[in-house]
Each structure stands twice: as C-alpha cells, then as structure tokens.
Amino acid sequence: MSNPWVVLILAGIFEMVWAIGLKYTDGFSRLWPSVLTLVAMVISVLLLAQAMKTLPVGTAYAVWTGIGTLGTAILAVFLFGEPVTVLRLAGIGLILAGIVALKLA
User: Fold this and answer.
1) Within a 13 Å sphere around the CA of 45, how many CA atoms are in the beta-carbon half?
2) CA gap 52, 8 in Å, rounded
3) What is the mean pLDDT of the segment spanning 39-57?
4) CA dist., res. 21 & res. 7, Å (int)
5) How far apart are CA 2 and CA 57, in angstroms?
6) Residue 3: pLDDT above 70?
7) How far apart are CA 63 and CA 78, in angstroms?
8) Where are the domains of the chain?
C-alpha cells in the first residue's frame, strides 16, 4: 500500500483489535485470545512504522493512538456494556476532532 494515511488508519484499526483483545486474554492466561492480541500488536506497530516513513512522527503517532482510543471506547460500549454518558460522548467527539485537525494540518 502506498498511501501512508490508509496504512496509518489500518494501524489504528489493529490497535483497536489488540486493545479489545487484551480484555479477552484474561491477563494473557487464555492462549488463542493472547496469540491473536499479540499478532494484532505486531501488525499495528509495523504498519505505524511504515506510515511514519513519510508522515511526521507527531502527527502519525497522535492519529494512531486517537484511532485506537476512539474505536476502543466505542467498541467497549457495545461489547462490554460500558456506560454512554454525555461526558464520554464529549470526550469521543474531542478525540475525533483532534484526529481530523491533525489530518488537515
């Protein structure tokens, strides 16, 4: 893939996968969830490194963590029944705004 932004988005998606996967590993005591989580971690970091070949490090890292945080917070509501509050929604909105601002900068 040649578009660094697409690579970075994929890296962020894999970050969501491993962050959610951590919950299913039960402290890395369950084999297959642990294996899948570790594979997702490696893929995420490798894709981030690839994107950083052309994107500024500060922007790439912030967007990567922002995608991971945003996606993980949203998925946690659906997968684990975490509460949806006005403050949580405002925080998610601010993270999304930050990602967009960094993409446009």
Assistant:
1) 7
2) 8
3) 97
4) 21
5) 17
6) yes
7) 23
8) 4-104
Q: Which amino acid belongs to residue 39?
A: V
Angle 52-34-19 from CA coordinates, rounded to 5°: 50
Q: Residue 67's closest CA among 53, 52, 48, 88?
A: 48
Over range 35-62, report the average pLDDT: 96
The DSSP symbol for 14 reads H
Q: What DSSP string runs through 41-60?
A: HHHHHHHHHHHTTTS-HHHH
**Average of per-residue pLDDT across 92-99:** 90
Residue 3 DSSP one-character state: -
96, 64 in Cβ contact below 8 A? no
SS3 assignment, position 27: coil
Per-residue pLDDT at 104: 85
* Identity of the residue numbered 62: A
Q: Which residue carries 């963590």 as its tokens?
A: 65
53 class by beta-carbon count within 10 Å (0-12 exposed, 13-18 middle, 19+ buried): exposed
**Structure confidence at residue 1 (pLDDT):** 64
